[in-house]
Specification:
The structure is a single chain. By secondary structure, this protein is α+β, with helices and mostly antiparallel strands. Helices cover about 45% and strands about 10% of the residues. The protein has helices spanning about 5-20, 25-35, 35-45, 50-60, 65-70, 80-85, 90, 100-105, 110-145, 160-170, 180-190, 200-210, 245-265, 265-270, 280-295, 300-310, 315-320, 325-330, 380, 445-450, 500, 520-534, and strands at about 215, 225-230, 235-240, 335, 340, 345-350, 355-360, 390-395, 400-415, 415-430, 450. The longest helix has about 35 residues, at about 110-145.
Length: about 525
């Protein structure tokens, strides 16, 4: 039995004991507490998590002191319980030293209460996350299943995180901020900078213009901090592990933070609008500081000129300006000046496990807000050939076509990729723009050459994908043990069970209709596609 299950069982057992001591029937207690007898029965058996509000209500109902009740839930010695508790990732950031731990251990009742409360909090938080995930699935299924097929019906985004809010903010501004462009251009003029900057140039600017000193210092053991800006001592501390290109970016981003503080640019850019999450404004500030770094290292006018000349050759541009592939890819997504406008691009950064850590949609493509993306995308396939540019046309279920290309960036530590990082940087634009790109692929039949793809397995409309990782919420999940598709999670169409029907063994389909009835809409869609292809 794990710790969480043991805690649930302990809480339920003690509540049952309190009820029996008072000769209260389970049905009566459930009625007074406002829950069903079946639910209370499961709690008393340790098979359901006891939510905080219900626990406090039950303790008042049984006239039980909360602190005394919590202190009896701990198992084993108090110091062991605390030591185990402090291993929790959620509490490691508190950095509690041994003296503080010893002091807390001297108060067994308090220590037991802290341990019990934290474990109950963890259980309740997990339960809440599960509920929100389910509500989000239901809401997204409803909106994406609207009669128009566009999924534009307004609804509540239960999984709308601060990062989603930042992405929406960037897309609203088309990822272009002229105020930051002007500030970066002014600095370049004042210091008469060449096209390709060095870290020495940037450090000199930092010291002369902002009166900050720079020191190189390794972080303490167990810390991964590579940059720390101390406004009180006016010191920028940088890690000695930073190589030239990331070092330049960190110094430039630090100057971006100083410029925004001095000119109050965040307030001016955000205006009077309110953010849904408290963290969003600070995340936007980080994004704007990074934007400033790109504008300083890749000045709009010169960069736009070279982009046109090289036809968006990201590798060549990174060599021309002495920056990373990822920095150039980001900057390409900033070219939205109405007078010097570049092609629209969407941007993705993914790791080898398929997790997307950065994203921006300048083409209108939708990204999954929670969960994985389509395994058919170039940004994921790039890991199969990490030394090459992976290029492809892709077609979405609604018929929209894109041209995408991606490259893997490796940054080993001590010669080990496992210790370092491996990211795939993907860019995509509308398929008709491929002819303007150095990486563009020739095609005589776009519909034939494009790779069928989607947004994510959970909401994909495709019925014939051979690499589904999960069943789609768009279809009722149904299968026939006598019929094997190339992927278990692909929805089973009515016509794919015709042989079973002829043998008199038809099973009800996923919507409850008999297999012998008329074909459903999925089957008709497939037949229409076959007619079109012929």
């Amino acid at each position: 039995m794990n710790n969480d299950n043991a805690l649930n069982a302990n809480v339920g057992l003690k509540l049952r004991g309190l009820r029996l001591q008072r000769n209260i029937k389970q049905a009566d207690a459930a009625k007074d507490l406002g829950v069903s007898p079946a639910y209370l029965n499961l709690i008393e058996k340790g098979k359901r998590v006891m939510p905080f509000p219900l626990l406090w209500k039950a303790l008042r109902y049984f006239e039980q002191d909360p602190e005394q009740f919590m202190s009896t839930l701990g198992e084993g010695r108090v110091d062991e319980a605390l030591a185990k508790l402090l291993d929790e990732p959620l509490l490691k950031s508190l950095d509690i030293d041994s003296e503080s731990l010893q002091s807390l251990s001297a108060e067994p009742k308090l220590a037991g209460t802290v341990a019990a409360l934290f474990n109950l909090y963890k259980n309740t938080r997990t339960q809440l996350e599960n509920v929100l995930a389910q509500l989000n699935v239901e809401e997204r299924t409803r909106t994406q299943g609207s009669p128009s097929g566009l999924g534009n019906t307004p609804g509540v985004r239960f999984d709308y995180s601060p990062f989603d809010e930042v992405s929406d903010f960037l897309e609203k501004h088309r990822n272009y901020f002229p105020e930051l462009e002007e500030q970066a251009e002014s600095l370049r003029r004042d210091f008469r900078l060449e096209q390709q900057l060095t870290s020495s140039n940037l450090i000199r600017m930092l010291e002369e213009r902002f009166d900050f000193k720079v020191q190189i210092e390794r972080a303490t053991s167990g810390s991964s901090v590579v940059r720390r800006l101390d406004l009180d001592t006016r010191t920028l501390t940088l890690s000695p592990d930073l190589t030239e290109q990331p070092l330049k970016f960190q110094v430039a981003a630090s100057m971006g933070l100083m410029v925004m503080d001095r000119e109050k640019l965040v307030e001016r850019i955000l205006g009077a609008g309110r953010m849904r999450h408290g963290e969003t404004e600070r995340l936007i500030k980080v994004n704007l500081a990074n934007y400033f770094a790109g504008a300083l290292m890749l000045p709009y006018g010169e960069f736009f000129k070279e982009v046109q000349r090289t036809r968006y050759d990201v590798e060549l541009l990174s060599n021309i300006f002495g920056t990373t592939y990822e920095t150039v890819a980001h900057r390409i997504c900033n070219l939205s000046d109405p007078k010097r406008q570049g092609l629209p691009f969407h941007f993705l950064r993914a790791d080898i496990a398929g997790n997307i850590s950065k994203r921006y949609s300048g083409t209108g493509i939708r990204f999954a807000s929670g969960g994985g993306s389509c395994a058919k995308w170039a940004v994921h396939l790039a890991f199969l050939n990490p030394s090459q540019i992976t290029r492809q046309y892709s077609i979405m279920p609604d018929g929209t076509t894109y041209f995408c290309f991606a490259k893997v960036q490796l940054q080993p530590i001590e010669g080990s990729i496992v210790k370092g990082t491996a990211y795939s940087i993907g860019l995509g634009t509308h398929a008709e723009n491929a002819k303007y790109l150095a990486y563009g692929l020739p095609t005589n039949d776009l519909r034939k050459d494009a790779i069928p793809s989607g947004i994510s397995c959970r909401f994909c409309e495709r019925t014939d994908c051979n690499q589904r990782a999960a069943a789609s919420y768009r279809f009722a999940f149904a299968f026939d043990e006598y019929t094997k598709k190339d992927c278990f999670f692909s929805p089973l169409l009515v016509h794919e069970k015709e042989k079973a029907e002829r043998n008199g063994n038809a099973e009800p389909d996923g919507n409850g209709a008999e297999g012998g009835e008329k074909h459903d809409s999925l089957d008709r869609g497939v037949r229409r596609r076959k007619v079109h292809e012929n």
